[in-house]
Amino acid sequence: MSHPPDRREVPSRDDGPTSTGDEPLNRLAAAIRRISAVAVGHPVPDRVIARAAGQLVEIAETLEDSAVTSRRARAQPNLAGHPQDFFPRSPIIGFANPIAPPVEVWLGHGDDGQEEIRGRVTFDYPYEGPPTCVHGGVIAELFDELMGAANVIADKPAMTGTLTVRYRRPTPLRAPLDLVARFVRSEGRKVHTWAAIYHEGTLTAEANGLFIQVQSGHIAETASD
C-alpha cells in the first residue's frame, strides 16, 4: 500500500515515483517524442514539415541561448526510493529525456519472493530495426538499464563489464512489452544479473550481465561537465 507523501521525509519504494510528473522538462520531452514518432513513422506533406522545421529551429535556438553553461549537478540514486526515480534523465527510463521511450519500472517480487525490477514499454517508430520489430541495439541498452536498476535495489550498484543478449524471437514494435530484471549473485566486486522481455507471455529476448562494483560517487566525480 502506498503511503501519502507527507508521511515520510525521504521517498521510499512504497511511494509512487516523483520524476514522472507534469514538470516543464517532462512535458518538453514528451512533445519531442511525439514529433519523433510522426517524423519517422508517418508520411507528412513537405510544406507542413518545412513549416514545423522552421518553428523547431527557433525553439532550439531559444533553448540554446537560455542554457546555463556551468557544470551540471549529478545526484546518486536514492537506494531506498522508487526504481523509476533512480535515473530520471536516463535515455531509457527517464521521463525528462526526449530520446527515452520511456520505460516504466517498479519494484516487484519473483516466485521465490526475491525483489526484482518489473516494467513495461511500448516502442514506437523511432526504435524500429527490422520492419515492425524493435532494433536489437535498443533491446541491448534496455537490458543494460534494467539490470543496472536491479543491481541498485539489491544494494549492488555497479558498472557494466559484459552484456550477453539472446534474441529468442522478433520483439514487436508498437506492442506492449513486459520486462523483468533481477540480481543473481555476486563474487567479490563482480555482480551477475539477468533480464528478459516478454510479449503476451512469450519470451522474445533475455540477457545476462556481468557488472563491476565501483566506489559510490566515483563516476559522478569524474564527469567533465
Attribute tags:
globular; 225 residues; disordered N terminus; 4 helices; alpha+beta; single chain; Thiol Ester Dehydrase, Chain A; 6-stranded antiparallel sheet; 27% helix
Structure description:
The protein contains four helices and six strands. It has a single domain, classed as Roll (Thiol Ester Dehydrase, Chain A), CATH 3.10.129.10. It is α+β, with helices and mostly antiparallel strands and 225 residues long. The protein has a six-stranded antiparallel beta sheet with strand order 1-2-4-5-6-3, covered by helices on one side. The longest helix is centred in the N-terminal third of the chain and has 21 residues. A hairpin with a 2-residue loop joins strand 4 and strand 5. Helices cover 27% and strands 25% of the residues.
Structural topology:
Layout: H1 24-41, H2 46-66, E1 104-109, E2 115-121, H3 136-153, E3 158-167, E4 177-187, E5 190-199, E6 202-213, H4 218-221
Antiparallel strand pairs: 1-2, 2-4, 3-6, 4-5, 5-6
Structural class: alpha+beta
CATH C-level? Alpha Beta
The number of distinct helices, counting runs of at least 4 residues, comes to 4
**Overall average residue pLDDT:** 89
Q: What is the CATH T-level topology? A: Thiol Ester Dehydrase, Chain A
| DSSP, total strands | 6
CATH architecture: Roll
Strand order of the largest sheet: 1-2-4-5-6-3
Fraction in helix: 25-40%
Q: Major sheet, described briefly?
A: 6 strands, antiparallel
User: What does the radius of gyration come to?
Assistant: 19 Å
Tell me the distance between the termini.
40 Å
Fourth CATH level, the homologous superfamily:
Hotdog Thioesterase
Element order: H for helix, E for strand = HHEEHEEEEH
β-strand percent reads: 15-25%
Domain count, please report it. Answer: 1
Given the C-alpha coordinates, what overall shape results?
A: globular
- Point out poorly predicted stretches: 1-10
